[in-house]
Write a structure and sequence with these properties.
heterodimer, A: mainly beta, B: 4-stranded antiparallel β-sheet, 54% strand
């Protein structure tokens, strides 16, 4: 089983639409979770951290379900500028050090 | 806002040649990482570096790879004898505990 699994998409949506991405992770001991955004041939950039209680940042809402090992990202009122690849990321921990473990990403294309 | 700087932005090299990718992390960060992303694939962990030594490396990071921090500022990734399959984006990241990861803009390595 992949450590972090996402639907690759693409999701093609019109401006103003609401779109949701899902992600599952395999290591039940994982403690920290993130959504990153990556534009074509650019570095990943942190979009938001994901907390057990759920968190919202403007049009973006992230949720975590530890029992199901499932993370989601909801984007409301999509903008053209939201077109990008959204990476589900889990903080892995081994041997006293941590590292980010990336999913393969879900592509979003927002059209006029 | 402090940045992680990577040079060069793009390097083309012949198979079998040595390459050195350079990174200048943020000055008060203590943990440094190299990740790579083959075109169309996920971001993969290569190596982490703390206190002037490797703290963890992935199975990708074989004897052809090495890292060092020669002058307390630059953080370099060396590939001794490049192969075609080393073609990828290489991202450097530095971390200050509790403040998250900052990625550089990457070096696109093309091996021909």
């Amino acid at each position: 089983r992949k450590e972090v699994e996402q639907d690759p998409g693409p999701f093609n949506v019109p401006e103003g639409a609401t779109v949701a991405f899902n992600c599952t992770y395999s290591n039940s001991a994982s403690q920290s979770f993130f959504w990153y955004r990556q534009d074509c041939r650019k570095e990943p950039k942190l979009l938001m951290s994901v907390y057990s209680s759920g968190n919202e940042d403007g049009r973006f809402t992230a949720q975590l379900n530890r029992a199901s090992q499932y993370i989601s990202l909801l984007i409301r009122d999509s903008k053209l500028s939201d077109s990008a690849t959204y990476l589900c990321v889990v903080l892995g921990f081994s041997g006293g050090y941590n590292k980010l473990i990336f999913g393969a990403g879900t592509r979003l294309a927002v059209h006029p | 806002e402090p940045e992680v700087t990577q040079t060069p932005s793009h390097q083309v090299t012949q198979m079998g040649q040595e390459v050195i990718l350079r990174c200048v992390p943020i000055s008060n960060h203590l943990y440094f990482y190299w990740y790579r992303q083959i075109l169309g694939q996920k971001v993969e962990f290569l190596v982490s570096f703390y206190n002037n030594e490797i703290s963890e490396k992935s199975e990708i990071f074989d004897d052809q790879f090495s890292v060092e921090r020669p002058d307390g500022s630059n953080f370099t990734l060396k590939i001794r004898s490049t192969k075609l399959e080393d073609s990828a984006m290489y991202f450097c990241a530095s971390v200050r505990v509790n403040y998250g990861y900052t990625f550089g803009s990457g070096t696109r390595l093309t091996v021909v």
